[in-house]
Amino acid sequence: MLNKLKKQKKSTQSDTHSYQDLSAENIPKHIAIIMDGNGRWAKKRGLPRVAGHREGMNVIRKIVRYSNRLGVNILTLYAFSTENWKRPKTEVDFLMRLPERFLNVELPTLIEENVVVRVTGEKENLPQYTKRAVEKAIEETKHNDGLVLNFALNYGSRSEIIDGIKSVIKDVEGGKMAVEDLNDSTFSSYLMTADLDDPDLLIRTSGELRLSNFMLWQLAYSEFWFTEVLWPDFTEEHFEEAIRVYQKRQRRYGGV
Ligand SMILES: CCc1cc(N2CCCCCC2)n2ncc(-c3ccc(F)cc3)c2n1
Question: Pocket around ligand 1: residues whose beta carbon is below 6 Å from it?
């Protein structure tokens, strides 16, 4: 897609498509997204909050497809934090049905598009129907080797770090690990994202400028791109703009 468009650009200099100066060579390998603004989107339209979540799922579909075409290796989507359990029960119950609803429609296409579905978070205390839906998707896509679609589900970074520290202590006390061997790389192997590279780019929608207990260790060296756009209004063009800004920063900092 990009190479084709890049050729087009050479032949039609007036090409004003937003693909301009999006380099195929420096697509971020791992993009993480905090998909914020769903409730606000609904409220602005006089709709119930759940309408925003439903519309937000349609945006996931588009961004997953686009990421796969761009050659992104890992797309992490913050779907539910450990703090979200404090929301009204009716909203939590609705949210917990979304993985099933999304996968009932999308899993065949994800399989066809060679996507690997993965979940980062505490799966154990999810409702059975939620766990069953995600485990089925993980199982049915585990032999794929394309885009890794990583849903952060019932995930909280501080508890992930605390659990990692407890495991390190257990291994040191058990003689499996020497304290001297503890460093960034060995500690990363104790986290839920042990098998993933850290995000190169974090996108957060709806104007919030916080991490909200998301991948605090993993985002240490990531580029952040914030937008006022609410997640249900987020488009491929917004996604491209985030990547374009990322690539411009890489060129600038890469030179020093
Ligand atoms: C359990 C909370 C939740 C919320 C949610 N929202 C609400 C938040 C942001 C907008 C999108 C819609 N989505 N959208 C997809 C999933 C999903 C999760 C796992 C999976 F394997 C497949 C799909 C999802 N999960």
Answer: 35, 38, 53, 56-57, 60, 79-80, 95-96, 98-99, 102-103, 117, 119, 134, 137, 151, 153, 231
Complex ipTM: 0.99
Out of 38, 84, 150, 154, the active site residue is: 84
> Minimal CA–CA distance to 122: which of 172, 162, 72, 63?
162
- Position of tokens 């609705």? 94
Compute CA distances 148 → 5, 95, 141, 197, whole Å.
25, 22, 10, 11
Q: What is the pLDDT of residues 122-140, one digit of tens each?
A: 999 999 999 999 999 999 9
Nearest to 154 by CA among 87, 83, 81: 81
Cα–Cα distance for residue pair 58/60, rounded to 1 Å: 5
Ligand 1 pocket: which of 98, 120, 149 to mutate (most atoms within 8 A of CB): 98
Q: Which of 154, 169, 168 is nearest to 213 (CA)?
A: 154
Cβ atoms of residues 151 and 100 within 8 Å: no
What pTM, to 2 d.p., does this model score? 0.92
What's the gap between Cα 51 and its chain centre? 21
